[in-house]
């Protein structure tokens, strides 16, 4: 019972923050609501006995990526009222309609397909299991991600450089 | 969860929160007195014995101060920011074990304990960043931007330093990290504990961690976000009353928590420097002189050692603040990205060499790394010296103009290179 | 163990994904569009973890967690480059409105 209550609380906050993020015109508020959303998702990961992924979610998304977003928003001064962009008024209803359609399609698949029972091993979410799987079974994809991150670092350094300097 | 488990959990939370909030005035008082001592002043000494009640008086004063909200500030985010800077400081200490009793400590002995601390400390950037932005003030904004860049940069170095501790102890669980350090020193000295700081990788890791923890808590010499000579008070400029106090409290609680983390990961946690357990067994079998000795060492309980180490680290915080000058922004970034991260990566690599191939190749690796660094640093110093010589030579016309009163004044430009006058 | 059925998690993930998609279509600020994409990626991560919990053997469960970590890594790289591009565009054009940044179309 307590688990259900916790799930619905987290889900409620996650949904409302997601809607708020899209509805808000102020990018700073959008970013903050997204941080709250990621926090709720991390809590949900914990309930799925994925404690390592959950804490990595907080460290990487809430701690690094979203701070970077806020940093850029403030650097470009996009949070002030006069800098806020008008939204595409015409496309708005169409976009919501499309989103609702997408949601219905996905949910129909959910209720058609899923009838499995959870098989909690407990050990699957530990850092030890994930680490050993990552460096043995999934070592090649890991290398590709590493190369991608290196390329990303070099690319962003090149982008940030001013040509005159 | 049974009621008794719940009761114990609440007790654990109460102890940690009570300690953090109760020690806070003491730490603030200590810092003010110690800084005064370093600067040959007296410091607050009027209220209570040795001025001990001064922080309480300050809190009461701040509580009754008027709260001023800046015009055009984003009211909601402006009020949220102090809370956001207080929250991580309050919860980050939850996985630190301060004694061997698992019923009393830590609050939650989770498998990902050290990552939990990293996650919470990374959230501390939000309070500062949002405070700076929502104040609608250029100094606050610059302070907030500086703080976020600094925290992100030094988080990497801190993560690498902690990775050393994690790899060396083979666990993310903080109680296991302490248990590993209880082994005999270097595997041979039986009556001493193998604190991580006594190993080469641990020493480098501890040094890295210490530098990063100064930066993460925005303390001197990394207090650029609140550099009063350039930015008024940085992100705190527009805050008054209890909101200002909240930032203050957050900073000092972060100092306490991060000292506890360093103690646990590198300085042997709650372990005493000497392994007393042979003494206890001698007292049980032999009696005589060993009984009072064993009682004495038993009274010097693990929490005492933990608190002693934390207090020593807090003193070093104050010491560094009183001694070192504030870094310039480019120096800060250079140190974070071009010194700490390469050193941390090298340290981690050499630690894995030790774990895979034994101590001899690792030792050779350390000697090689230090030698390479010495060569590089010497070359760099020579380059800087050469540049200074060149600058000195270029500046000669100015000095001649200054030294001889009969020569034409500087404004007419005699003896100056043209590009100096017009460029 | 968990009393919450998998369909609840999956419905939530589908909802978040749809919200993110709507945001991508509505917003004109590329930074907010980026944030919506992050939301969609996170919705996918939630389904990954939900399905991981319902796998019969341990190896398949761990694989789900590993894939979530890969997604997070790719998202981090994407954000680094994407925000760099946005800053450069702002420097060149003084605006980052995605509808007015259409140099290649004209």
Please give the structural blueprint.
The complex is a heterotrimer of chains A (165), B (423) and C (106).
Chain A (H helix, E strand, L loop, with lengths): L1 H22 L3 H21 L3 H25 L15 H23 L13 H10 L2 H22 L5
Helix pairs in contact in A: 1-2, 2-3
Chain B lengths: L2 H36 L15 H11 L10 H17 L21 H22 L3 H32 L4 H8 L2 E2 L3 E5 L6 H17 L11 H4 L9 H26 L10 H9 L4 H10 L2 H22 L5 H29 L1 H36 L1 H8 L14 H5 L1
Antiparallel strand pairs in B: 1-2
Chain C lengths: L5 H21 L3 H24 L4 H36 L13
Helix pairs in contact in C: 1-2, 2-3
Note down, in words, how this protein is organized.
The complex is a heterotrimer of chains A (165), B (423) and C (106). Chain A folds into two domains: 1-82, Up-down Bundle (Four Helix Bundle (Hemerythrin (Met), subunit A)), CATH 1.20.120; 122-165. Chain A is 75% helix and 0% strand. Chain A contains six helices and no strands. Chain A is globular, with a radius of gyration of 20 Å. In chain A, 37% of the residues are buried. Chain B is mainly alpha-helical and 423 residues long. Chain B folds into two domains: 3-273 and 300-356, no CATH class; 358-403. Helix content of chain B is 69%, strand content 2%. In chain B, a hairpin with a 3-residue loop joins strand 1 (184-185) and strand 2 (189-193). Residues 418-423 of chain B have low confidence and may be disordered. Chain C has a single domain (6-93), classed as Helix Hairpins (Orthogonal Bundle), CATH 1.10.287.3510. Chain C is built from three helices and no strands. Chain C has helices at 6-26, 30-53, 58-93. Chain C is elongated. Chain C starts with 5 loop residues before the first helix and ends in a 13-residue tail after the last helix. The mean pLDDT of chain C is 84. Chains in contact: A-B, A-C. The interface between A and C is large, with 86 and 74 residues.
CATH class of the largest domain in chain A: Mainly Alpha
Beta-strand share of residues of chain A: under 5%
Task: Provide mean pLDDT of chain A, rounded.
Answer: 83
The helicity of chain B comes to 55-70%
* Main pleated-sheet profile of chain A: none
């Amino acid at each position: 019972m307590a688990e259900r209550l916790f799930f619905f609380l987290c889900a409620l906050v996650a949904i409302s923050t997601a809607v708020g993020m899209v509805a808000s015109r102020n990018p700073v508020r959008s970013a903050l609501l997204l941080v709250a959303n990621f926090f709720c998702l991390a809590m949900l990961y914990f309930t799925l006995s994925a404690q390592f992924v959950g804490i990595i979610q907080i460290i990487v998304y809430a701690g690094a990526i979203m701070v970077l977003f806020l940093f850029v928003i403030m650097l470009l001064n996009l949070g002030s009222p006069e800098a806020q962009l008008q939204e595409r008024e015409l496309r708005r209803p169409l976009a919501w309609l499309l989103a609702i359609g997408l949601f219905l399609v996905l949910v129909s698949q959910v209720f058609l397909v899923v009838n499995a029972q959870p098989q909690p091993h407990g050990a699957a979410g530990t850092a030890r299991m994930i680490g050993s799987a990552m460096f043995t079974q999934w070592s090649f994809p890991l290398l590709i991600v590493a190369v991608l991150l290196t390329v990303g670092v070099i690319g962003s350094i090149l982008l940030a450089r001013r040509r005159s300097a | 969860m049974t009621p008794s488990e719940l009761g114990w959990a609440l007790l654990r939370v109460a102890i940690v929160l009570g300690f953090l909030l109760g020690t806070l005035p003491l730490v603030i008082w200590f810092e003010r007195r110690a800084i005064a001592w370093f600067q040959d002043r007296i410091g607050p000494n009027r209220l209570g014995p040795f001025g001990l009640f001064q922080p309480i008086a300050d809190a009461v004063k701040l509580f009754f101060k008027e709260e001023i909200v800046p015009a055009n500030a984003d009211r909601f985010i402006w009020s949220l920011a102090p809370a956001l800077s207080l929250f991580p400081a309050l919860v980050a200490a939850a996985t630190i074990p301060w004694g061997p009793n698992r019923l009393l400590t830590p609050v939650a002995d989770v498998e990902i304990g050290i990552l939990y601390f990293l996650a919470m400390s990374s959230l501390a950037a939000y309070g500062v960043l949002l405070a700076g932005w929502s104040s609608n003030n250029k100094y606050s904004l610059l302070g907030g931007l500086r703080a976020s860049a600094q925290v992100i940069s030094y988080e990497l170095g801190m993560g690498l330093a902690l990775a050393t501790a994690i790899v060396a102890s083979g666990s993310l669980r903080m109680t296991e990290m302490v248990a590993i350090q209880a082994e005999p020193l270097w595997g041979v000295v039986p009556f001493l504990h193998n604190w991580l700081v006594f190993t080469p990788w641990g020493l480098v890791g501890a040094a890295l961690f210490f530098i990063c923890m100064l930066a993460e808590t925005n303390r001197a010499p990394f207090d650029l976000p609140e550099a009063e000579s350039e930015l008024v008070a940085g992100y705190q400029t527009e805050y008054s009353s209890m909101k200002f106090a909240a930032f203050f409290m957050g900073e000092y609680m972060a100092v306490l928590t991060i000292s506890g983390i360093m103690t646990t990961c590198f300085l042997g946690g709650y372990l005493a420097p000497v392994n007393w357990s042979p003494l206890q067994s001698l007292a049980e079998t032999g009696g005589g002189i060993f009984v009072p000795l064993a009682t004495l060492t038993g009274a010097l309980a693990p929490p005492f050692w933990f608190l002693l180490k934390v207090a020593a680290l807090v003193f070093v915080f104050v010491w560094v603040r009183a001694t070192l000058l504030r870094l310039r922004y480019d120096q800060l970034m250079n140190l974070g990205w071009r010194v700490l991260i390469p050193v941390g990566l090298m340290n981690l690599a050499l630690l894995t060499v030790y774990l895979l191939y034994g101590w001899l190749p690792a030792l050779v690796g350390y000697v090689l790394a230090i030698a390479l660094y010495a060569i590089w640093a010497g070359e760099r110093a020579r380059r800087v010296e050469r540049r200074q010589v060149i600058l000195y030579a270029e500046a000669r016309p100015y000095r001649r103009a200054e030294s001889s009163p009969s020569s034409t004044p500087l404004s007419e430009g005699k003896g100056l290179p043209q590009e100096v006058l017009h460029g | 163990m968990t009393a919450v059925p998998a369909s609840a998690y999956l419905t939530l993930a589908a909802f978040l994904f749809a919200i993110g998609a709507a945001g991508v279509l509505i917003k004109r600020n590329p930074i907010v569009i980026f944030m919506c994409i992050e939301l969609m990626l996170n919705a996918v991560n939630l389904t990954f973890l939900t399905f991981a919990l319902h796998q019969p053997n341990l190896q398949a469960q761990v694989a789900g967690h590993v894939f979530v970590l890969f997604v997070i890594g790719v998202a981090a790289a994407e954000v680094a480059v994407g925000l760099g591009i946005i800053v450069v565009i702002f420097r060149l054009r003084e605006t980052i409105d995605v509808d007015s940044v259409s140099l290649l179309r004209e």
